[in-house]
């Protein structure tokens, strides 16, 4: 399942569509950036509540397929700007990380 | 590619909006050199972690990257406070990052462990009051285009 299909299935809010044709390989949940770089796999969907600009850099370096801000967290202006510039797929949801992961597990 | 390519970056201290720009530029360069994607990912993460460490702990520093025929070398040098106990600093989860930095998502205590994990060769030298130098080597496959 690609990012576009998953965003539609989970009714995610689109902050920046990004590379929507990328396949979602799995899921990683975390807010500590170095831990994400250590443990997330390429293609994972990354769920976080961290809304600052550094999330974009970590998403690019980790090569996750997309970032989903859980619990209705909204991105900082700087993060959104960076995601647009770097073509990072950035989405949002009112659901918790756990609830999101459960839904993702049903569809991928 | 037979010629070696040298990149130099000056990392500014305490600027978290620009932190990561050197790693991003390095990654862009690597993509043009025919290095396999998994190696690019590892090398760029190594550089990013080093860059972030210099921003957080050392008020910046200098990075030199040498992309050769058979390996990439990343040399990071700062004139920060140094690391009194390197063995302790290498443990996953150990951090001395202040709370305001941790609230940004840094300070997981994974920076140095990640650099070691993602590089093929890792060497760190540090002296309190003098600074820290980290050298990472990432091997490249033969017969690269």
Helix count from the secondary structure assignment of chain B: 5
Helix residue percentage of chain A: 40-55%
Name the shape of chain A in a single word: globular
Number of strands of chain A: 5
The arrangement of helices and strands of chain B along the chain is EHHEEHHHEE
CATH topology of chain A: Udp-n-acetylmuramoylalanyl-d-glutamate--2,6- Diaminopimelate Ligase, Chain: A, domain 1
Strand content of chain B: 25-35%
Q: Strand order across the biggest sheet of chain A?
A: 1-5-4-3-2
Strand arrangement across the biggest beta sheet of chain B: 1-2-3-5-4
The CATH topology of chain B comes to Heat Shock Protein 90
Q: By helix and strand content of chain A, what is the structural category?
A: alpha/beta
Low-pLDDT runs of chain B: none
Give a structural overview.
The complex is a heterodimer of chains A (108) and B (145). By secondary structure, chain A is an alpha/beta fold. Chain A has one domain: HprK N-terminal domain-like (Udp-n-acetylmuramoylalanyl-d-glutamate--2,6- Diaminopimelate Ligase, Chain: A, domain 1). Chain A is 41% helix and 19% strand. Chain A has a five-stranded mixed sheet with strand order 1-5-4-3-2. In chain A, β4, α4 (77-86) and β5 (90-92) form a beta-alpha-beta unit. Chain A is globular, with a radius of gyration of 12 Å. Chain B is an alpha+beta fold. Chain B has a single domain (5-139), classed as Heat Shock Protein 90, CATH 3.30.565. Chain B contains five helices and five strands; from the N terminus they run βααββαααββ. In chain B, strands 1-2-3-5-4 form a five-stranded antiparallel sheet, covered by helices on one side. In chain B, β2 and β3 (71-78) form a beta hairpin. Chain B is globular and about 45 Å long. Chains A and B meet through α2 and α3 of A and α1, α2 and α5 of B.
């Amino acid at each position: 399942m690609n990012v576009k299909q998953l965003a539609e299935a989970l009714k995610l809010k689109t902050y920046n569509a990004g590379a929507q044709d990328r396949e979602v390989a799995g899921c990683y949940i975390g807010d500590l950036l170095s831990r994400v770089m250590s443990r997330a796999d390429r293609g994972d969907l990354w769920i976080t509540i961290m809304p600052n600009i550094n999330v974009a850099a970590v998403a690019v370096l980790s090569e996750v397929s997309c970032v989903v801000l859980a619990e209705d967290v909204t991105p900082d202006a700087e993060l959104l700007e960076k995601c647009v510039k770097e073509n990072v797929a950035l989405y949002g949801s009112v659901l918790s990380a756990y609830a999101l992961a459960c839904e993702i597990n049903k569809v991928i | 590619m037979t010629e070696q390519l040298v990149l130099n970056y000056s990392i500014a201290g305490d600027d978290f909006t620009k932190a990561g720009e050197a790693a991003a530029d390095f990654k862009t360069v690597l993509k043009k050199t025919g290095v396999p994607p998994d190696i690019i990912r590892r090398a760029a993460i190594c550089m990013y972690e080093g860059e972030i460490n210099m921003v957080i702990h050392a008020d910046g520093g200098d990075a030199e990257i040498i992309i050769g025929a058979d390996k990439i070398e990343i040399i990071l040098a700062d004139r920060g406070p140094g690391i009194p106990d390197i063995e302790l600093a290498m443990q996953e989860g150990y951090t001395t990052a202040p709370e305001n930095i941790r609230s940004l998502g840094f300070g997981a205590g994974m920076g140095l462990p990640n650099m070691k994990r993602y590089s093929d060769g890792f060497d760190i030298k540090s002296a309190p009051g003098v600074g820290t130098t980290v050298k990472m080597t990432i091997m490249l496959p033969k017969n690269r285009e």
